[in-house]
């Protein structure tokens, strides 16, 4: 797959958006603003924008024929290298648009994949991005062989072209299989690490990209996670220990940011990373309080959480960047809309103690007191229980140890299942 930025030279980009039924023009313009941020993250300079209202996407080119001509002329006049569409294009649409505009055409999914490819650092993230790219590329493979169209039917071109295309498809399918196997091995290793961490409860930071999740992780846990004021600065799940009190600790998990129209195959590829959030006892939904599209961002995050099966997970809304607020009524208004919300500034250190208390209260409410009996013949179970709960009382009887435990709801259930065959 071609990347938008293959050299140090910044490419010039034109943005194209559409206003479909149910979408207002100002919303489409805001979406183009976000596309401009994505372009900047990918290393491109936006030199022009075009927006068209349409009743339905044109099957051949998404936008109307007249608008295609307008974009082509604008791209030529401004010396654009690439045209970025805010919608996903079918392989046919992308091929037709490139033919008419005579510039490289990249849709929203292709742009996000390019950014992920540039920012993937760990072996897992690189494998996840490679898998998503290949799944994106496969139906578009015929575009790589457009040079044969000029010679269609010519001697010596029909067979080899088809043979090469089929070879490429077979190689891509093989590579996809290898990447899936590799990611499955990584998932199993991650599961082992998770089981080792079962003793501690977990809170996952989720939210729209660039909401400040990594900054909040650094502020709370004193970690040195990379922070950048750009979209998708974090791709890998990062786990840090957060001390709530002298004897009370939780694991804080930073995850990849969500975004409007996040490609489905990208979500699928990053599922093993997002499983860290699925394992969390509580989600900290980090919201950029200063962003004008706050409501859209909240809705997008909720939609992705629904897709991941996390809609019923306890959530603490965390409004970040309150130091940038100009509306003095904002906090009161949002506090009424989101009961239990916490308002912070990770950059300025505002509200962090209140957030720690909110996390501690959430976990305290979820803990259970239970009494268990473990025979002396099962010492491994005694060690496992020590790893999953706080021991409040221990006494030894003739046939085993009796423990009074305080454990999180999920861990209490795990302990019951483990000891279900014991008296």
Named CATH topology of the largest domain:
Rossmann fold
Helix content: 40-55%
Mean pLDDT: 82
CATH architectural arrangement of the largest domain:
3-Layer(aba) Sandwich
- Give the beta-strand count: 13
* Largest sheet, spatial ordering of strands: 6-7-5-8-9-10
How many discrete domains?
Answer: 4
Descriptive key words:
423 residues; alpha/beta; Rossmann fold; 6-stranded mixed β-sheet; 4-stranded parallel β-sheet; 14 helices; 20% strand; globular; disordered N terminus
Secondary structure layout:
Layout lengths: L10 E9 L5 H17 L2 E10 L11 H14 L3 E4 L5 H11 L2 E3 L1 H12 L3 H15 L20 H39 L4 E7 L5 H9 L16 E6 L5 E6 L9 H6 L1 H8 L3 E7 L5 H14 L7 E6 L9 H8 L4 E2 L8 H15 E9 L3 H10 L1 E7 L3 E9 H10 L5
Parallel strand pairs: 1-2, 1-3, 3-4, 5-7, 5-8, 8-9, 9-10
Antiparallel strand pairs: 6-7, 11-13, 12-13
